[in-house]
Every structure is written in C-alpha cells, then in structure tokens.
Amino acid sequence: MSEFMQAAIAQAEDGLRQGGIPIGSVVVYKSKIIGRGHNLRIQQGSPILHAEISALADAGRQPAAVYRQSTLYTTLSPCAMCSGAILLYGIPRVVVGENTTFMGEEELLRARGVQLEVLQDDRCVHLMRKFIGANPELWAEDIGE
To answer: HSE of 70 in the Cβ direction (CA atoms, 13 Å)?
Structure first.
C-alpha cells in the first residue's frame, strides 16, 4: 500500500479517536502531501466537513495547475459533494480505499474523465463497518439519509 493511502488511513484513525466518523483523505502534488484531512462533521458540527473537503481546505489556496496535477487519496468512495469538489478543481486522479460500505459518485467521476482506482483495503472496510455498526444514526446523518 502506498504511503499516501497510509496517510489517509492515519487521518481516518485520528478522526475516530476524536469521536468522529473514520474517513480520511490527503491531497498529493508531485509526490508530496499538500493537504490532510478527516471527517469533522461531529467534532465541528459542520454539515460539509467531509474528509476530502477538509484535506482540500488544509491544502489552502493553490493555483488551478496544482489541483490539475494532484491526486486525492480517500479512505471511502467520495459522496456527491466531495465528487463535485474534485470536478470543480480538476483533480485528475482519485485513489479510493474502499467502496463496499458506501458507493459514492464514481460513475460521475469516471464519466468526467477522472482516473479512479479502488483498492478495497481491508483496514478501510473494517474501520467503516465497525463505525457503522456502532453508530448507525451518525452514519445515516453523514450520508444524508
């Protein structure tokens, strides 16, 4: 497994330790992490601070060319909101830890030319299954059910 997915998983684990939803993400530009984030909806009471959005916020303002040469690593398939951010900033490649517990907008991303790689990483699956089993109401809230 790449060091970048390892970093995304570390972010997910940090979020879980903080009492949040265990989803993590990193933004990588030229083989360097420029943004790290995890789902902060519970910790900050925000409806939009998913892991991918947190990682983009951590990366800060970047020229469009940086995003167009970046890869986003995320432990879970990106939802509609996060997929929209990926498309808005022209991120060309997304590496997903797993999509068995939640299938996001992968078809949309692929249709718009985003290169998508799904790893089905056991650690990512385990983190989400354990969390969903223990916190079904928080999970339903997070995905808008």
So the answer is: 27
> What DSSP designation does 90 have?
T
User: Measured between alpha carbons, how far is 126 from 96 in angstroms, rounded to an integer?
Assistant: 14
Residues 6+ apart with CB under 8 A from 133: none
Amino acid, res. 30: K
Among residues 55, 20, 24, the alpha carbon closest in space to that of 124 is found at: 24
pLDDT tens-place string over residues 54-113: 999 999 999 999 999 999 999 999 999 999 999 999 999 999 999 999 999 999 999 999
Q: Which pTM value belongs to this model?
A: 0.96
Token readout for 14 is: 């940090």
Which residues form the catalytic set? 52
Whole-angstrom Cα distance, residue 65 to residue 62?
Answer: 8
Task: Identify the three-state secondary structure at position 26.
Answer: strand
SS3 74: strand
